[in-house]
Amino acid sequence: MKVVALAGGVGGARLADGLRRQLPTGELTVVVNTADDFEHLGLRISPDLDTVTYTLAGLENPETGWGRADETWSFLEALERLGGPTWFRLGDRDLAVHMERTALLASGLPLSEVTRRIAAGLGVRPAVLPMSDDPVRTVVCTDAGELPFQEYFVARRCQPVVRSFRFEGVEAARPTSGVVEALIPAPIVILGPSNPWVSLDPILAVPGVRELLHGKTVVGVSPLVGGRALKGPAAKMALELGLPATPLTVAAHFHSILSGFVVDQVDASLADSIERMGVRTLVTNTIMRDGDSRAALASDVLRLAEAVAAGSASP
After folding, report:
1. pLDDT (tens digit, 9 = 90+) per residue, 124-181?
2. Contacts of 24 (CB under 8 A, 6+ apart)
3. Which of 55, 103, 153, 271 has its CB surrounded by the most CB atoms within 10 Å?
4. What are phi and psi of 66, to 5 degrees?
5. What gap in Å lies between CA 98 and CA 302, rounded to an integer?
6. pLDDT of 222-275, one tens digit each?
């Protein structure tokens, strides 16, 4: 059973790891947001691609969810002594990936091939694909003006009040050939518990991607639990956009493409409201603290998807 997961950031990466544990090798493709990418110190940084790749390789930092475990910081300490910019934390092992990516891109390879080589070098088995080889950049429109995503997210620690978002370059972007080839035969597409506005929306905004979801079973997982996001600014963004920070908001946001939706036990009271949208809903534990809980959530998500696809009354 071919499955494609759309992901960006820590939650999507952890569910992708759970799906890897549940599906045979070769059945899972992870399509990753690249609208967070940026240039820093002359290097091409791809935060979401790296988070997904490190997590699938078992190399992620267990405390932060991003960056690498057992990281060292000699480069950053040396840079600080020189008065260089240290607001974006580049560990030594992480730096090697950015340098290799930048060098391979400069040699003329597309980001999809560069990503394949890095993932293979780290022992990742599922296919990890950037949403596009073309540049797309998220701009956060705030009360402090329009900000590149990393300036909003890292340098300003999400403090400006969000008004809206736009994705520079997305109109001219194309999904990579690997994304198209993965989506066409896949009966099931999973929307990871990633930020709806700055992780999943950029992928879905790439021309052609939404059309490729037509006729498939699309199951989402709420990134909001009990009124807050476990990682990142999704809840803050929802409130500043004038929306309740609940799974109901996320389900409504993706309603036009959703077949099923998974919410945490603490939000069980919202299940009936989501069901009334015509979206099959499963209530379960969505907190992924370790490999076993990632696998358990992935099993529940796949069970719901299979039940929806089969027209079964209960997952």
Report:
1. 999 999 999 999 999 999 999 999 999 999 999 999 999 999 999 999 999 999 999 9
2. none
3. 55
4. -115, 165
5. 34
6. 999 999 888 889 999 999 999 999 999 999 999 999 999 999 999 999 999 999
The residues facing 39 across adjacent strands are 44
Long-range contacts (CB closer than 8 Å, 24 or more residues apart) made by 71-75:
none
Task: Kindly report, residue by residue over 173-192, the tens digit of the pLDDT.
Answer: 999 999 999 999 999 999 99
Q: What is the pLDDT of residue 63?
A: 82
Three-state helix/strand/coil letters over the chain: CCEEEEECHHHHHHHHHHHHHHCCCCCEEEEECCCCCEEECCEEECHHHHHHHHHHCCCECCCCCCCECCCCCHHHHHHHHCCCCCCCCCCHHHHHHHHHHHHHHHCCCCHHHHHHHHHHHCCCCCEEEECECCCCEEEEEECCEEEEHHHHHHHCCCCCCEEEEEEECHHHCCECHHHHHHHCCCCEEEECCCCHHHHHHHHHHCCCHHHHCCCCEEEEECCEECCEECCCCHHHHHHHCCCCCCHHHHHHHCCCCCCEEEEEHHHHHHHHHHHCCCCEEEEECCCCCCHHHHHHHHHHHHHHHHHHHHCCCCC
Q: Which residue matches tokens 């600080």?
A: 80
| Residue 53 structure tokens | 């790749």
Non-local CB neighbours of 279 within 8 Å, separated by 6+ positions = 251, 255, 258, 259, 260, 261
